[in-house]
Amino acid sequence: MEFFLISMLNGLSYGLLLFMLSSGLTLIFSMMGVLNFAHASFYMLGAYLAYTLAGVIGFWPALLLAPILTGAAGALFESQVLRRVHKYGHVSELLVTFGLSYIVLELVQLIWGRVAVEFNPPSQLQGPVFTLINHAEQGLSLVAGAAGAACQSAEAVRVICTPFPATRAFIMVTAIAMVVSLWWVLTRTRAGLVIQAALTHPETVETLGHNVPRIFMMVFAMGTGLAALAGVIGGFTFITEPAMAATVGSVVFVVVVVGGMGSLSGAFLASLLIGIIQTFAVAIDYSVLQLLDDLGLASSASLQNNSFAKLTVSQAAPILPYLFLVLILIFRPRGLLGKRET
Amino acid sequence: MMRHPHLSSTANYAIWLGFALVLLVAPWVFTSNLSMTMLSQMGIAIIACLSYNILLGQGGMLSFGHAVYTGLGSYLTIHALNAVSSGNLYIPVVLLPLVGGVAGLGFAVLLGYVTTRKSGTAFSMITLGMAELVFAMSLMFSEFFGGEAGVSGNRVVGQAFWGITFGPQRQVYYLIAIYTFVSVGLLYAFTQTPLGRILNAVRDNPERVEFIGYNTQQVRFRAFIIAGFFAGIAGGLGALNFEIVTAEVVGPARSGAYLLFTFLGGATFFFGPIIGGILMVLAFVLLSEITKAWLLYLGLVFLFMVIYAPGGLAGLIMANVRVMQVGALRRLVPIYAGMAFTCLLMLAGAGALVEMIYHQQLNASLGPDLPFAGLILNAQAPSTWLVSLAIALVGWAGFEWLRQRFMPIWADIQSEINTPAKQEKS
After folding, report:
1. Which ipTM did the prediction report?
2. Report field, pTM of the whole predicted structure over 0.90
3. A327 interaction partners in chain B (CB closer than 8 Å)
4. Which of A80-89, A296-305, B195-204 has the weakest average pLDDT?
5. What residues of chain A lie within 8 A of the CB of B132, using their CB?
6. Is B360 on the interface with A (CB under 8 A)?
7. Quick check: B295 and A91 CB within 8 A?
8. Radius of gyration over alpha carbons of chain A, in Å?
9. Which of B140, B302, B354 sits opposite A311 (nearest CB)?
10. Which of B129, B303, B307 sits opposite A250 (nearest CB)?
11. What angle do CA A122, A125, A129 make, to 5 degrees?
């Protein structure tokens, strides 16, 4: 039970982190038709900037400043580079962001080195936020913070303590706050309404006197800023290293396709699904071979050495998002909540 | 976009004959071991980039996973080679790259069925997913992919035929050269087939193609299969050339390299990827030896090419050939010389800065001095940094100044080229 609860929470927090990335990507895509290949690079840039800033101005200001700086870099890229290639079509736009991902990766390695940097969460976020205690006699209970004494069992009573890290809880809180404020900005403010209008009717919006290219730039900045915010949080929760962009990048693209290109709610659903599937898969050590054993079927010696039969679910975890992608494309090509088929 | 200069058939024969001659003579001009392996790799890279360009240039399909087909071709070829060595299979070594080709074709049928259901941006994302899927699998199934060590083989198997054992690199080079020549010929022929033509139409206007009764998805799928076949041949040749296949041949970095260099060579002309393939080997073998920062330079060059020269090097060459044909190149020569000089200044300054940063980052323990373009730079003296920065800025300012002068002249010449053409038509 506590395994299920903790895995579920871990999966949700990972899924929410994925959504912080995929929401920015989806916003940019649905607005400009540009799939920003370098989106994960901005995620990485956010993490590294926050790492450096945290040493100078402290963690909490860095958490705010790093996404703003990254968003400014995104705006600069949009107005100076992306806009120039717009006339050549979507392939060129994708290519230019692809080139940017190379450059950002090399610059990060140039400035911060090729090995992981030690980016630790602030003292407020260290340690667990609560601990689940499964006491063999008293049943399941929950203690805020780390449970020191409660985990000591006097006699031969089985007590299992599962802590839930504060960083994970922080991901959830930030992501939910971000979702709510994004929703609020897009549907309840004047700026959000203009953005929504520019999405579907850019010419009309332009005729009404709004500066559409500037709106595009703002959206790009917002999207990259959100990616950077996810990067700061992901950076201290997981690891801050040059490979972090590649690790999360391809999964985010899977999320966007699975959810349905350009659909924000689809991206939300797909993020959570993939986050949960991957987290559970990592924790399950079960293989085809064990399944046959449990079913009471004897397996031959050659089968016991077959690497496919020996493969546990946790070993197969890295490919699950991609398998999911293939299945979705075969059975529902427009994605979970996608509107049109392209 | 695919403008074919109208060549007489004799000129056409001359070009193909010249290509064959270059392939034949190259190993007698560049005789060192290094150049021999590089020439072999260039042949392979040319086939791979040309097959990739069926997707990118001719079909408008930006794939992030082409290494899947070259890589799986490599793996099946090396397994077939090992089966031949152990006597379980009889295929002459000369035909083994075809095993790779068939493997590439098979996987293109299998995976391409899913990928080509979409076009445009979604297609790109799905190819990326496929590439990640295959790469992640390569780390899971070590029987087939050989784990960390990879799968190695020995290409010297069976009876020597006319004394050809494929032991010496030169013999392998000629095998690769023959495959390269035939593949380039076939790939060019493909562009002239009805499928090749309709593929261009699918790239430019899929809706109209649907209207005249073609299934665009089928067209993309068939082109994808053909690209997969030639990619597999390139992979098979690679397996024979290196005699070892490791998981990185299916990796996303390799796929990225095909995309990068095909574009740099020029995706809009048939011969562009040939330049791209040659550049790819030069960059991977030579540039990576010269500087640690080569990927940074590569990324920057790529970015500037996408912005300013979307036709790649082939596009630049053809634009200037047209200028030369109307005899206007003379007006540009001085400004080209100036731009080349200022560009070189800018590169020297910026390059020195980047190299010094890399030196500080990686080799600071070796002392402050680093060699750069025949000079010894002191990476810790502020004067070196200031001078480098000044050179870079002067170069940049000069280049911008010349570029401002260049643009109107260029536009002028272009309109001169275009006007008589219009008069002829009317």
Report:
1. 0.84
2. no
3. none
4. A296-305
5. 250, 322
6. no
7. no
8. 23
9. B140
10. B129
11. 165
Backbone angles phi, psi at A144, to 5 degrees: -70, 145
Q: In this structure, how many other beta carbons lie within 10 angstroms of the beta carbon of residue B184? A: 22
Q: Looking at the complex, does the CB of residue B83 fall below 8 Å from at least one CB of chain A?
A: no
Select from A92, A110, A250 the Cβ nearest to the Cβ of B128: A250
Judged by CB atoms closer than 8 Å, whether chains meet at A326 and B133 is answered as: yes
**Partners of A10 in the beta sheet?**
none
- Say yes or no for a CB contact (<8 Å) between B310 and A92: yes
CA-based nearest residue in chain A for residue B302: A99
Q: In angstroms, rounded to a whole number, what is the distance separating the alpha carbons of residues B307 and B302? A: 9
Angle at A155 between CA A151 and CA A157, to 5 degrees: 65
Is the CB of B293 inside 8 Å of chain A's CB atoms? Answer: yes
Element (H, E) at A134: strand A128-135
Mean residue pLDDT across chain A = 83
The vertex-A85 CA angle with A265 and B402, nearest 5°, equals 155
Structure tokens at A227: 């990616």
3-state secondary structure of B154: coil
Task: Name which of A258, A284, A283 is nearest A271 in CA terms.
Answer: A258
Q: Is the confidence at residue B48, as pLDDT, over 90?
A: yes
In this prediction, residue A84 carries a pLDDT of: 87
Measure in Å the smallest separation between the Cα of A33 and chain B Cα atoms.
9
Task: Write the pLDDT tens digit of every residue in A196-254.
Answer: 888 778 888 888 888 888 888 988 999 999 999 999 988 888 888 888 888 888 889 88
Residue whose C-alpha is closest to residue A167's, from A2, A4, A13, A6: A13
pLDDT reported for residue B276: 92
Residue B37, classed as helix, strand or coil, is helix
Tokens 């260039």 label which residue? B42
Instruction: State which H helix or E strand residue A14 sits in.
Output: helix A2-32
Residue recorded with tokens 């791979």 = B48
Residue B284 DSSP symbol:
I
Distance of CA B24 to the CA centre of its chain: 21
Please answer yes or no on whether A342 and B126 come within 8 Å at the CB atom. Answer: no
Q: Give me B204's structure tokens.
A: 């430019």
Q: Which fold has domain B9-311?
A: ABC transporter involved in vitamin B12 uptake, BtuC (1.10.3470)
For B112-139, b/e burial (b = at least 16 CB within 10 A) is bebbbbbbbbbbbbbbbbbbbbbbbbbe
A100/B299 CB distance under 8 A: yes
Amino acid at B102: V
Chain A contacts of B56, Cβ < 8 Å?
A: 91
Please list the residue range(s) of chain B that carry CATH number 1.10.3470.
9-311
